[in-house]
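> call design_seq(struct)
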């Protein structure tokens, strides 16, 4: 099972620095480098999203996942993406409780104007290791385990049916 980890920071720049560290540590932490995203909220309240993604099998990207997630959480359209049939079904699954309401509310509460957050999808064998490695940046850790069924659907949508 994968775990979606969000770490909120009280400023706009720390999440970016933390994402660079997460990218360097990706191999040891069992984080796919593409499964890292940063969202900042400037002092005017506008959201800015940075992802580390590239195209994968079937032409889908982690960027589409982040677009779905951030669109659902903050009503932020990311990258003007078009949602295909597989990801459209996944959107409904995410919205219907794959990411619990408490986690969603805590993320929304955490991202006030002038703050940022780091998001990572981490394999269940090492989420604590990932959090420990990122602890030097401080922040508020929010975690949400993705149900196995949703994780499998996500992998199929992102990497094709053979993943």
């Amino acid at each position: 099972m994968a775990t979606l980890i969000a770490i909120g920071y009280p400023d706009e720049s720390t999440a970016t620095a933390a994402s660079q560290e997460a990218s360097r540590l990706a191999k040891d932490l069992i984080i796919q480098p593409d499964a890292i995203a940063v969202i900042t909220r400037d002092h005017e309240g506008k959201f800015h999203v940075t992802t580390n993604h590239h195209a994968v099998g079937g032409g889908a990207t982690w960027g589409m996942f982040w677009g779905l997630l951030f669109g659902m959480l903050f009503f932020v359209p990311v990258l003007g993406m078009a949602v295909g049939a597989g990801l459209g079904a996944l959107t409904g699954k995410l919205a219907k409780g794959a990411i619990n309401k408490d986690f969603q509310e805590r993320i929304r509460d955490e991202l006030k104007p002038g703050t940022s957050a780091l998001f990572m999808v981490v394999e269940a064998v090492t989420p604590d290791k990932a959090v420990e490695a990122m602890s030097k940046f401080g922040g508020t850790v929010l975690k949400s385990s993705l149900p196995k069924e949703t994780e499998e659907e996500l992998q199929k949508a992102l990497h094709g049916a053979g993943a």
